[in-house]
Specification:
Distance between the termini: 24 Å
CATH architecture of the largest domain: 3-Layer(aba) Sandwich
Number of domains: 2
CATH superfamily of the largest domain: Phosphoglycerate mutase-like
Largest sheet: 7 strands, mixed
Order of helices and strands: EEEEHEEEHHEHHEHEHHEHHEE
Structural class: alpha/beta
CATH topology of the largest domain: Rossmann fold
Number of helices: 10
Radius of gyration: 21 Å
Number of strands: 13
CATH class of the largest domain: Alpha Beta
Helix content: 25-40%
Strand content: 25-35%
Amino acid sequence: MVSAGALCWRLRDDADGPEDLEVLLVRSARWGDWSWPKGKIKPGETLPECAVREVQEETGVRPLLGRPLPSVGYVLPDGRDKMVTYWAAQALFTTSRSAQPEEIADAVWLPVQEARALLTRPSDLPPLDALMAHARAGELDTRALVVLRHAKARSRAHWPGTEGDRPLTSVGRSQANALPGLIAVWAVDHVLTSPWARCMMTLLPYLRERSPAADPYQGVEVLPLLSEQGLRNQPERVPELFHSLLTERAGSWLVCTHRPVLESVMGALAKACTPAALESLPAANPWLGTGEALIAHIAGAGQIVAVERFRPEVRS
């Protein structure tokens, strides 16, 4: 069974340091065990989407996923194997939980040491140990930089229009339609994009879901330097942009661009990566697949402490 969840954390009001963290636990009504909120992935979901949905259903907390934590594997009381992928997370907001009482009996915030003593399975400890290690290192509170390669476009050879007008294929439109749930996981504050049609079309389903009552492109920063022609005209501008996103501009960011631009993007990100994060950074062309997102988790003054990649499933 493939599942996902999160270790939601917060600092007490009177906190002096990492040891004053509180974490969110749930008690299963069926088994009576205490563990982290999590659940089984649904068809068409990515693991981050599953984690967000399950945490909110079981606890009422809408989590903002941060850096990944160690996965956990164990055997359920009924004999099934279960593998759970976890993230650190903070609460965006809290509502009533929707899980049925016969599923989740309780959800509580506890100091870390109390949570450690209450956890039923020793296998649930490694994610907590990692979370605390990141907190002590000052690398737990992160923000996201999401780099998105546009979805599949019409081939250059078979498009009679201009390069900037080349649209998505039917597969590309399906890829774009699969992206809103994934991008929403990180609740990005700002969106930057190439002005070329294939990038604008890739973002449109997400933008429509994010602001259904407004012009979908309202607030989106359209930058010619993120196009292939922009890269050719001023190749130094892309590294400069990403340096500013990492070190000078606050909040979380979504950037949609093209495969030829990604080489400069990855070079800029590599300079900010810890050794562990660098191992997960794409190292060769094509860098990302069409409709694939890279998430760089940024801590402190611009250091990338973790890198992930996700590409939603597109059903034929």
